[in-house]
């Protein structure tokens, strides 16, 4: 039987892992969006693809670079936390 405290601790750890793995991509999307917005405001260019393409390229690049970190973090979390809970060895 799973205790309430163990359940909430696992949920807290899961949310923290989600934050850690999403921060690099969200940060790059924010910075790229601000840079493109500033460029558009300075040059008065209002092209819709100008906002989409640079952000998409930056997000894909950072995702590709940080994929190893994300995979290692998730695998470590599953092998040390989730698998023992499923097998009953908590």
UniProtKB/TrEMBL annotation:
Protein keywords: Cell membrane, Cell projection, Cilium, Flagellum, Membrane, Transmembrane, Transmembrane helix
The keyword Transmembrane helix is assigned to this record: yes
Entry's transmembrane regions: 15-36, 56-86
Location of the protein in the cell: Cell membrane
Keyword Aminoacyl-tRNA synthetase: no
Major subcellular site: membrane
Membrane association type: Multi-pass membrane protein
PANTHER family attached to this UniProt entry: FLAGELLAR BIOSYNTHETIC PROTEIN FLIQ
UniProt record similarity statement: Belongs to the FliQ/MopD/SpaQ family.
Record's protein name: Flagellar biosynthetic protein FliQ
Species of the source: Lutimaribacter marinistellae
């Amino acid at each position: 039987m799973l205790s309430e405290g163990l359940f909430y601790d696992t949920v807290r750890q899961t949310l923290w892992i989600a934050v850690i793995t999403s921060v690099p991509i969200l940060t790059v999307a924010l910075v790229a969006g601000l840079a493109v917005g500033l460029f558009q405001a300075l040059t008065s260019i209002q092209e819709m693809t100008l906002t989409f393409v640079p952000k998409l390229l930056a997000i894909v690049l950072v995702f590709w670079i940080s994929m190893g970190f994300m995979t290692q973090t998730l695998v470590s979390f599953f092998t040390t936390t989730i698998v023992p809970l499923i097998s009953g060895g908590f």
